[in-house]
Design a protein that fits this description.
Elements lengths: L1 E6 L15 E6 L3 E12 L3 E12 L2 H21 L7 E15 L4 E17 L5 H10 L4 E8 L4 H25 L4 E14 L5 E4 L17 E14 L1
Antiparallel strand pairs: 1-2, 3-10, 4-6, 4-7, 5-6, 7-9, 8-10
Length: 239
């Protein structure tokens, strides 16, 4: 007789980190089959994230940061004017660094000034306007763009669909194994789930010089994004 420790599924309020999950001992007298099944569901994205930034160069650190801040304020104001809420605009990085060039004749680093950069991440909820927004950001002074990155804001329905499909496939496979082993039925002993998410192709960095002509919006195709479930189950084979 084999015993498996099965975590009990419980809905509770937050508890201290020292608390331990309850376990239930389930006895098994027949052979056990363990299966890992992965299911993925594709859906149309409803959120697109882009990065926009400004990079400036100046002889002094103060001037580089001042110019950069002024230019970035114009970009952020433009983002807000497009109807993007403040909660969907987040500063992702601010950098200030000295610039050096290597002098081949003197064979030494030569100080050239300072470079300042400021970048924000912008969440857009109207995907069809992505191209227009990218063009507007460049027109407002953004010197580099990153993205777009498409995703699902709420993927619970998609995950639920993948979960059902995974469990159905796992049960069918377990029954097939039981039949091949000479057993007529199965009994579920344990379920473990892990979440998998994938949003499609990785984003491409686009600089202002690579944007299309001013009178054309940058072409953007959202395609489909996927989300999935990986389920590991244990079944006892029964007569």
């Amino acid at each position: 007789m084999t015993r498996y420790a099965v975590p009990a599924l419980m809905l509770t309020a937050a508890v201290p980190m020292s608390a331990h999950a309850a376990e239930v001992q389930i006895a098994s007298s027949g052979p056990v089959v363990e299966l890992t099944v992965m299911e993925e569901v594709e859906a149309e994205p409803d959120i697109v994230t882009v990065g926009a930034g400004v990079t400036t160069n100046a002889p002094t650190a103060v001037e580089a940061l001042r110019q950069n801040s002024q230019a970035m304020r114009a970009v952020i104001d433009r983002i807000k004017s497009l109807g993007v809420a403040e909660r969907d605009i987040q500063t992702s990085s601010i950098n200030l660094n000295a610039r050096y060039d290597y002098d081949q004749q003197r064979q030494e680093q030569v100080f050239r000034g300072y470079q300042a950069s400021n970048r924000v991440t912008v969440k857009l909820r109207e995907i069809e306007e992505t191209g227009e927004v990218l063009d507007a950001l460049v027109a407002a002074g953004a010197t580099d763009l990153n993205g777009p990155h498409f995703s699902l804001e709420d993927d619970e329905a998609a995950k639920a669909s993948a979960r059902r499909a995974a469990m159905q496939r796992a049960e069918a496979q377990a029954r097939e194994y039981a039949s091949m082993a000479g057993y007529s039925n199965i009994r579920l002993l344990e379920i473990n789930e892990s979440i998998r998410g994938r949003s499609g192709p990785q984003p491409i960095v686009v600089t202002a010089s690579r944007m299309m002509a001013k009178d054309e919006s940058a072409p953007v195709e959202p395609g489909l994004v996927s989300t999935g479930i990986s389920v590991t189950v244990k079944y006892e084979m029964t007569r």
